[in-house]
Give the backbone structure.
Amino acid sequence: MIFDLHSHTTRSDGLLAPRELLNRALEQGVDVLAITDHDTVDAYRDLPAAVQRIALVAGVEFSTRWEHTGIHVLALDIDLASAAIDAAVRFQTAARLTRARRIAEILEKMGVEDALAGTSGYAADGYIGRPHFARHLVAIGRASSVQDAFKRFLGDGKSCDVKQHWAELPQIVRWICEGGGIAVLAHPLKYKLTRTKLKRLLSHFVEVGGQGLEVISGQQEAQHTAAMAQLCEQHGLLASAGSDFHGPGKPWAELGAIGALPDNVTPVWERFS
Ligand code: AMP
Ligand code: MN
Ligand code: MN
Ligand code: MN
């Protein structure tokens, strides 16, 4: 059985529409898929209630902060009809739009005309992420690639790195639990924290109700998988695995192209209802 519990569609910053994503997952031999767009569950509106040949796990990836680090928390196996998930998504959507307006103001001061309107053309209704600003900056010749746009304007510490008003971590985890889901800390190695600091984050995460750690995020070295599995054991966390697929052409983050979880962890899917 191939589980891929982390993926994105055009409803956030992915390149495939929800149905296209499902088709690609099937082609890649995925048996169980979670669509986890950033701060939105709109992809599920575009899909039929019953999908054949693949089991869908309802999910979302929430943006939040711990101390000074931006972190992502996956909500897996949520009840899409729950008031808590609805509240969470509404809050985060508003925060995202406020941030988008701020980023657009800064870009306009830098001579980028109609930054918000231009960027909106790359994004789904009511949703704008930094990758959409990046695509617009590339299209108008202000950056040579999406990567370059992050390096010059949108990344940490750059001119468009505005203060973000995401919901606080404990609130995010509470919403996930109330929404019937399991809160999983996403891609723990992406935050570039020291091991001591990561352990401190995990202690806090568990304290506020977090239950899982994404032990495998796309193609990664065996030593990283072993280290993350050890953290699961030490903190009593369930283990998750996902590609973090955003679009074709990135073999290190392809749907279903993830290794098996080690034997010493409990897979998060054992707790799915
Ligand atoms: P946002 O949720 O709007 O803050 O955008 C964050 C998303 O931007 C991440 O989920 C990645 O998909 C993408 N991203 C972050 N850093 C980079 C980068 N350096 N180059 C390309 N994409 C990036
Ligand atoms: Mn993304
Ligand atoms: Mn993420
Ligand atoms: Mn992701």
Q: What stands out?
A: Residues 13, 38, 63, 129-131, 146-147, 150, 155, 246 surround adenosine monophosphate (ligand 1) (CB under 6 Å). DSSP finds eight helices and seven strands in the chain. The beta strands are 3-4, 32-35, 55-66, 69-76, 182-185, 212-217, 238-242. The two ends are 18 Å apart (CA to CA).
